[in-house]
Amino acid sequence: MSMNSTDNYRVKVTNIVEVAPTIKEFTLVAQNGELTPFSPGAHVVVTMKGENGDGQLKQWKNAYSLLSDPRDTSAYKIAVRLQPQSRGGSVFMHSQVSEGDELEITPPANLFAPNWRAKKHLLIAGGVGITPFMSYLPELERMGASYELHYAFRGLQTGAYKTELIEQLGEQVHCYDADAGDRLLLAELLKSQPRGTHVYICGPELLIDGVRQNAALLGYPDSLIHFEEFAAPQPGSPFTVTLESSGAEVQVSSEESLLEALEANGVEVPNLCRGGVCGQCVTKVLDGDVEHRDAFLDEREQDTCIMPCVSRAKSKTLVLGL
Amino acid sequence: MTITVEIDERVKSRPEYSPVKLDLKQQQQVFISATGNNATLKRMFDDCVTQLGNQRVTWLVVHQDVKRVIAETAADFPLATAVYIAGTEAWMWDVRNALIAEDFAPEQIQMLAPESNARRLFCTHCYTVMEGVTHNPHSCSGCGELLLVRDHFSKLHGAYVGVSINAEDRSEIPATEALV
After folding, report:
1. Which residues of A touch B2 (CB under 8 A)?
2. Is A23 on the interface with B (CB under 8 A)?
3. A-B interface: how many C-beta pairs under 8 angstroms?
4. pLDDT tens, B19-70?
5. Same domain, A87 and A152
6. Is residue B89 part of a domain?
7. A291 in contact with chain B, both atoms CB, cutoff 8 A
8. Is residue B13, in this structure, part of any structural domain at all?
């Protein structure tokens, strides 16, 4: 069956492995068409259809980095960290999805590709933030590129793939298990890098901020620092939005994002990352106060726009140019 | 989105040279010129020495062979280096490109306003590169074509693009005017 490059894939979950105490890895095989190769750092958005805690039908869409070899088109792999405090997508993946089940995924998109002109690649991962780098490593190895991976985790919860990484890549991998008292000393690490080193960070906000601050103190130019943080939308107070075109009202509950509420009401908004970074879902705000939680809009744009994937209303209502 | 769109009449590739600011946070400060005579650059250098002392400030005059000299010198500079360049436009871009080849990031390099309006010109017909072009149109020293000196700028070559000004009617010879 022929597919367009923008069509979603129906995939079958062929294998589920617990790769760390809170992280499960899913192997996905296409049921329609053929999976495309992708570039290191790419992600897909997974659509999950299930029931929420109250037994109501609910749909989640979460972005997950692809962690398989980018040139392997037989299957994709993603890893999901269980986050019981979040909106439920990771809980669904951990508790409801079994081998043999079907899911829907978007084709890969990339907001975190390596800069191939770098003389050296310094990869810094925190916890499940190892995933995009799993797709970097085969390509860096094939190119004979100079790189180091520094991987910080909590051995009692995270730390997926550490054994195989050390086995396969040897001294290019440095692991820091916080539960064993190993510390990743960012200032020391960054101080010793040669000019032409590009730095890539994926992990919790604290790690990203730590690297950026240390790099800034050492005089690293901004263009050498790359980071990816899929900030899952955080809950907030419920609010109501009105759509300019139809006058229809959409209720946004405290546990769902504005984008999810719009989609649940049949309003399609283009989106890629669902984490406030890519800019695709930018939407005009005609009235109301916004609590901006994205990393995309600049101050001027914040006056007139909202990123519905992560941001919410400060006021009780918003009027959107949709 | 209700963001006002301002139509820019300028050719977008033409560089703009905003006032240069000392970036004193950087560990090493490097001032580069071809002559050592640029008064603005000298004043910035003196200011920098006053604030940071001699150790962290370098005055570098590169008479010729930009690529080789920069490659040899750059190795001594730390990652946190700020570079300031003064000279003719094409020469400054040569220095910048040599620095980028040595893994400097573009935002580490600042260029002063060019010392003259003279342009390096690249003939799109025979690929000849001409230095010090001050008037439009300009006769190509390679193929003799009468060239319109465009504002379109190639960062890679540090040159403006020249295209035939009268390809359709050879008898049409526009009046010569000074470039700005």
Report:
1. 284, 304
2. no
3. 41
4. 999 999 898 999 999 999 999 999 999 999 999 999 999 999 999 899 999 9
5. no
6. yes
7. no
8. no
Q: Is residue A233 part of a domain?
A: no
DSSP alpha helix (H) spans, A67-192: 89-95, 131-143, 162-169, 186-191
Select, from the ranges A254-263, B76-85, B159-168, the one with the highest average predicted confidence (pLDDT). Answer: B159-168
Neighbours of B133 (CB within 10 A): 21
Domain count, chain A: 3
pLDDT tens, residue by residue, A117-151: 999 999 999 999 999 999 999 999 999 999 999 99
Question: Which of the listed residues A52, A79, A110 is the one where a domain comes to its end?
Answer: A110
- Asked if ipTM goes beyond 0.90, one says no
Q: What percent of chain B has pLDDT over 90?
A: 87
Nearest to A221 among B3, B27, B108 (CB): B108
Q: What is the dihedral of CA A260, A261, A264, A268, to 10 degrees?
A: -70
Model pLDDT for residues B152-175, shown as the tens digit of each residue: 999 999 999 999 999 999 999 999
Strand partners, A60: A48
Q: Write down the mean pLDDT value for chain B.
A: 93
pLDDT band at A1 (very low <50, low <70, confident <90, very high): very low
Which residue blocks in chain A are alpha helix, DSSP H?
A: 89-95, 131-143, 162-169, 186-191, 205-217, 258-264, 299-302
Contact A304 B25 (CB under 8 A): no
**Residue in A218, A282, A300 closest to B80 by CB:** A218
Does the CB of B97 have a partner CB in chain A at under 8 Å? Answer: no
Residue B108 to chain A, least CA–CA distance (Å) = 7
Q: What is the CATH number of the domain that holds A86?
A: 2.40.30.10
Percentage of chain A beyond pLDDT 90 is 78
Reading the block at residue A50, the tokens are: 């299930």
Q: Which residue has the higher pLDDT, B130 or A32?
A: B130
Kindly list the distances between the CA atom of residue B178 and the CA atoms of B129, B135, B136, B163, in Å, as whole numbers in the listed order.
Answer: 19, 4, 6, 17
Say if residues A123 and A150 touch (Cβ distance below 8 Å). yes
Q: Provide the shortest C-alpha distance from residue A303 to chain B (in Å).
A: 10
